[in-house]
Amino acid sequence: MPAAQVSAPAADKAMRRDAARNLEKVLAAADAVFADRGLDATLADVADHAGVGVGTIYRRFADKGALVAALMDDKLVAVTATVEAAETEATGWDAFVRFLQDVSGQLLSDRALGQILIADPGQESANRLIDAIRPAATRILKRAQAEGVLRPEIRFNDVSPLLVMVTTTADFVAAGNPRVGARYLEVVLNGLRARPDQPALPHRALSDAELDAANRAASTRRR
Fold first, then answer.
1. Which of 48, 118, 135, 144 has most Cβ atoms within 10 angstroms of its Cβ?
2. CA dist list (Å): 88 to 36, 85, 186
């Protein structure tokens, strides 16, 4: 048998291995670059970090949105695990506090994740993330309310605005003193505690459609 016929399968396997290694490098680089710089980072930035040409990325992903979407499964697993871990706290209030602290911490350490939750242009990734945490987060809210420690008006659709408040404030104070973010989280938490002398909140929580509209508007303002 001619040598060319013998070596072709081996060459194909080597090419597939190279392609798989390049894909791993691109995904790892994209995760690091988007976490650090947010969604404003370019595919060229990712290629530089991965040590590959930008054409290597385009051979696997049509655009930046497709690359971000490819990272979402791992991000969904990580955030969902964080919310579910908060459920192990001894009280409903402790679970609620840990939930806000830990998820806001993830959003602050991963700029792209925060932007996806708050201002995803297509809403597909944001909706997947919200749907992923909804069951555990809802259980935490109901548990804290059943114990009488969380305001009874709070609903799951309050979670995104609350996370925006906490993360935006923490990001704002970070350059001055990053530890001060905990001060404002405590202010938010104090406002969420159930107390007999509290006036009712002035409006109901956002509906699903209103939350979607708010996210879309936030996306437009980012552009």
1. 144
2. 30, 6, 21
**CA 85 – CA 87 distance, rounded (Å):** 5
Task: Burial-class residue 129 by CB neighbours within 10 Å (0-12, 13-18, 19+).
Answer: buried
Cα separations in angstroms, 146 against 36, 38, 86, 186: 39, 38, 17, 21
Task: List Cβ neighbours of 176 (8 Å cut-off, separation of 6 or more).
Answer: none
Q: Distance (Å, rounded) from C-alpha 39 to C-alpha 67?
A: 11
* Residue 3 tokens, joined: 């040598």
Low-confidence ranges of the chain (pLDDT < 50): 1, 6, 121
Name residues whose C-beta falls within 8 Å of residue 43's C-beta, 6 or more positions apart in sequence. Answer: 54, 57, 58, 61, 63, 64, 67
CA distance 35 to 113: 7
Q: Tens digits of per-residue pLDDT, 141-181?
A: 999 999 999 999 999 999 989 998 998 899 899 889 989 99
**Domains observed in the chain:** 1-61 (1.10.10), 71-222 (1.10.357)
- Tokens 């799951």 belong to residue: 156
Q: Is the pTM of this model over 0.70?
A: yes
Which residues have C-beta within 8 Å of that of residue 189, sequence separation ≥ 6? 97, 100
Question: Is 35 in contact with 109 (CB distance < 8 Å)?
Answer: yes
